[in-house]
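Ticket reopened. Same input as before:
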Amino acid sequence: MPDKNHQIEIRLLNEQLSHILRGERVEAVEAANGLDPELKELGETVNRLVSAYNEMREFILSLAQGNVDVSPPLHNLLASPFKQLQASLLHLTWQTRQIAAGDYSQRVYFMGDFSTAFNSMVEALEEKRRTEALLREAQAKVKHLEGIIPICMYCKKIRDDMESWQQLEQYITEHSEALFSHGICPECYGKVRSDMGAAVPGREKVKKKP
Amino acid sequence: MFKSEFYRFSWKDLGDIETGRPNLGNLMNVAVYRLMQYTLRDVLNRRLSVEKATELLREAGKLAGTEFCTNLLDRSLPFNGFVADLQEKLLSLKIGVMRVEKSDLEKMEFILTVDEDLDCSGLPLADETVCEYDEGFIAGVLEAYTGREFDAREVDCWASGERTCRFRVTARE
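Engineering reply: fixed in the latest deploy. New output:
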């Protein structure tokens, strides 16, 4: 039959372990004097567990609240998987900052589906940037004619920035990507022909030779 | 040449492995690399001292890092591109999975982690950091890239019970 001190010690150890199972903070318990050495050793081990558990609990709670920069516990094997998780989160935070600053050369490795999703996102952003750069380049090449253009109401010459008058074709050619191909419209053709006393030859279709 | 007191390492001393090992090739077991490193440490510890052995391993790592950077990395890249290049080379050569946690380019301070480290991942727990060679290697790479002297110190190590090796790197004043 164990003595009263032993019963108390076992009850306290049981309470400590129950707190851990409930995810609560646990207090270390000082072993009473005169305990059986094996029970005393068990008490000391549980206290070490309690200390490591409390450290780990504070750490993971802080991480869960988004405080990625929290100082990790040192030499705490219980917390080491969470420290690995923190290392990954810190690295992803760094990566995201680089991407926000326009650096798409980074890649994430060995983080499962996250790596695939993250790297796809970075590649898509890089592709978008490349396309935008191409568009900007193309836009820079295109000349625009905008605003009010002063034009002679009789001869249709245009006054340029240097206050000199240019032929309409010359002005548009210089200020746009358009080129002119000269021809004659039916109305002008009739007018020109009558002005010249029908000296201008008719626009007869040339029959193709068989 | 190798046994001359005037010998200085040069990248070409790594030899023509393709010609020299036409059947066995360029790969070997990680344990063999560790066998060399930890037996060397054993002898250095006993013949010199732990402190001296640590210092020598770090110094050798630094030389390796400098040569690695000079011969395999593109030093003309901006910092982020250089890091990506370093990360990719360490990965393709199966040295480890390096990740940057923090970088302050003004102060020249960095925190790097290495997962699946060639030197230590999987070692028995010893409650101590053991990657002095890596410390030197990282400092050497950054020195060759920036032209400034660096100190790299391992704050977490597989051997001290962590799953990730973490290095705090600072430029010397």
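Chain A touches chain B through 21 residues (CB under 8 Å). Chain A is about 55% helix and 0% strand. Please confirm and we'll close it.
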